[in-house]
Amino acid sequence: QKEVEQNSGPLSVPEGAIASLNCTYSDRGSQSFFWYRQYSGKSPELIMFIYSNGDKEDGRFTAQLNKASQYVSLLIRDSQPSDSATYLCAVTGTASKLTFGTGTRLQVTL
Amino acid sequence: DAGVIQSPRHEVTEMGQEVTLRCKPISGHDYLFWYRQTMMRGLELLIYFNNNVPIDDSGMPEDRFSAKMPNASFSTLKIQPSEPRDSAVYFCASTTDRRPYEQYFGPGTRLTVT
Fold first, then answer.
1. Surface-to-core class of residue B71, CB atoms within 10 Å of its CB (0-12 exposed, 13-18 middle, 19+ buried)
2. Is B25 in contact with B91 (CB distance < 8 Å)?
3. A49 at the B interface (CB within 8 A)?
4. Which residue, among B101, B83, B85, has the nearest Cα to B93 in the 3D structure?
């Protein structure tokens, strides 16, 4: 079992819709959770982080964390074509290490 | 700030050759990470440094890989000898001790070993 699992997609949503990206993790000791966005041919960039159970909102993005169920999700409201990218979920392991999932490719269609 | 700088951006080499990838972290950052990304395995941590000291190299695939950080502004990842299966994009990332998980990635080096 992989430590961080994501559906590879592609997840296709129409412009203006809500995109829902999900991630599960295996290490119950994980403390911090991150979403990175990676455009094709570019490097990952951090867009959201969450440390506590519940929701965290930042503009059109909402991160949701449920430690009991070991899942974290990212909601993108009013999806735009510019949101089309691969979204990487990352969780903390030991020390300062991040463990990344393989990413979900999101396509926002016109 | 210029961000994390990596060189070269692209490297094509023949099997058996030595490859050296370079990274300059963001000034003032205490942590430096080397990752490898492939379609099959995703983004994998190879090694990371804190204050120029290697902390965890458990992700380094084998003895052919080595990394150094001689000072706070420079790190190298060396592959000797290179093999076709080393073909990947290699990213360097850095961050501060205050927020160790919020990593800033460089543009990456795309390595092709033929």
1. exposed
2. no
3. yes
4. B101
Q: Which single residue is written with the structure tokens 């911090």?
A: A32
Do A31 and A92 form a contact (C-beta atoms < 8 A)? yes
Q: B67 — phi, psi (to 5°)? A: -140, 145
Q: Is residue A6 a contact partner of residue A104, using CB atoms and an 8 Å limit?
A: yes
Distance of alpha carbon B33 from alpha carbon B89, whole angstroms = 14
Taken as a whole, chain A contains a residue count of 110
- Lookup: tokens for A97: 């290490």
- pLDDT 10s digit of each residue in chain B, 114 long? 689 999 999 999 999 999 999 999 999 999 999 999 998 889 999 999 999 999 999 999 889 999 999 999 999 999 999 999 999 999 999 999 887 778 999 999 999 999
Kindly list the residues from chain A whose CB atom is less than 8 angstroms away from the CB atom of residue B101.
32, 34, 49, 90, 92, 96, 98
Closest chain B residue to A47 measured between Cα atoms?
B102
Q: Are B75 and B67 in contact (CB under 8 A)?
A: yes
